[in-house]
Amino acid sequence: MSAIVQAAQLPDSTLYKRKRSLSRSRSPVSRARSPPAHRRRRSTSPTAIRVEDADPVRRQERERQLAVRLAEEEAAGTKKPEFDAKAEFAKLITSKSGGVYMPPARLRALQAAASKDKSSADYQRLSWDALRKSLTGIVNRVNIGNIKDVIPELFSENLIRGRGLFARSVMKAQASSLPFTPVFACMVAIINTKLPQVGELVLTRLISQFRRSFKRNDKVVCHATSTFIGHLVNQGVAHEIIALQMLVLLLERPTDDSVEIAVGFMREVGAFLAENSPKANNGVYERFRAVLHEGAIDKRVQYMIEVLFQVRKDKYKDNPVLPEGLDLVQEDDQITHQISLDDELQVQEGLNIYKFDANYLENEAKYKAIKDEILGGSDESGSDSDSEDGSDDDDDDEAPAEEKEGIADMTETTLTNLRRVIYLTIMNSLNYEEAVHKLMKINIQEGQEIELCNMVIECCSQERSYSNFYGLIGERFSKLNRVWCENFEEAFATYYETIHRYETNRLRNIARFFGHLLASDALSWAVFSVVKMNEDDTTSSSRIFIKILMQEMMEEMGLKKLAERFKDPTMAENYQQVFPLDNPKNTRFSINYFTSIGLGIVTEEMREHLKTRTRTIHPATRATQIRIRDPAVPAVHPLVAATRPRRQDMLIAVAAVPGEARRLLVEIAAEA
Distance (Å, rounded) from C-alpha 272 to C-alpha 251? Predict the structure, then answer.
């Protein structure tokens, strides 16, 4: 009893220690049955059989059975079969789940053993699995930021052989991440431009999946599939007829789910249909309005239709046809597939399964040629031929290496940035000397000098009134280097041909700009060779352009000096079309034009030529010519002048008029 009381007075730690001491006193008895760890390791013989198992009884039984089996095999004299790499690899790849886990080193050894013969079924199966994993990985990591880098990786894989795998991967990825649907649609659109069979297969499977999910009332799959098809319509891969057929099908017998899917689909393709099929688009919205007025659907869905009408009113500002950064395909390069909802579709499910290809190496070589054509060559081309023949290597080393083209950036981003830099430099300069100094420091590639000239002219044309600031910039550049002078001469010819596209204010600024360059001799006057001063080759805009150009030159040079420059015999051949002498009609037109703009002094040579020509013509023919008079005196048309004299004089004049005009004058004379 006293011992119990003392134990009660002791702290808990003491009790704990006492309990542990009691257990320790029994431990030697329990451990006496087996030797210590170090003694066990020493006493274990090489032939000892040991099986790891938590239950000691079961472990002993398994060890006994294993010992009996080994004894029987030893007595029978059987040997363990040797390791067969190909058989082991075949067993590994033919199992449904890929077989048991195998260390990477052992797996690589098996693959190396199986890949010795590239035309074998084992190697084809191995490459098929690698293709499937590669396509799935590429599709899963694509986004707006890296799509331009991912596309070359996709083309580097055999998309013709793996088009079924690609279609399955992109459809699964899109169904699991709907916000990335525009990215997947853009990726399919880019591939469709080079490999149309891939884009057609994806579209065919999507339409088939939509029909199947619609019949099964699978709302989730139907919504995902319709969204993908809508973005393919926006990208131009699918024709808009499939979108209209889907809308008709969804709204023919409206239910809550079908109307909800139709509203979501219309938000994706509404902007495209409004632009390309406005009548059909209006018909679809009329059907939505009828469904809304019927009131047979849920309030929630009715509200969705009202929101859709508001989206249409806002012109789909949150649902553009092509989101920013995904307009990567030129409209002319896209191939549109016209697949109807009622067509018999070939989904080609067999393309998802591995099949032995007897012409595997030949097909791989064909796709390699296609890949080189798309990507502009391969870095590894020619490596095999280099190792085959040493003499060919020497010849190849002497041959110049061909430049390999990559995917060309057709968005002209570099050109746009160059124009922006030129514009900002001009706008931020205080005077023309500072502008020229800064512009000369811009790194302009060879062949892009014309862009600087065009930007200077465009900036000048945008001003409300002409500023001599731009004329001095052009003059300084033209006198610095012959290259700039040639580019400004080319720009003169271009702007003269397209001057009718500009409004009056811009036309005036451009004309005064070139007038300053010509008056300061920054440009050669040989540019007048593109000007043809006659009624047929000029327009009202070009005549106004020449008028302002000449007046600007006259203000800076003076009328006398201007006339002397036009009479320079060394440049006469460049003025032949400005002051024509070949046709009296063109000569009179040029004389009247320059006289009306105050430059009659430059027409003296044409007047003398016309007088000399008139004296040498038969008097009867002279009656049909228009007399050059003072501009204040109204001109008389030759046909009108011919009807005024007596009938005898009229018949003399008629004799000199050829063709249809003669018949008309004979009738007039007969009536007189």
Answer: 19
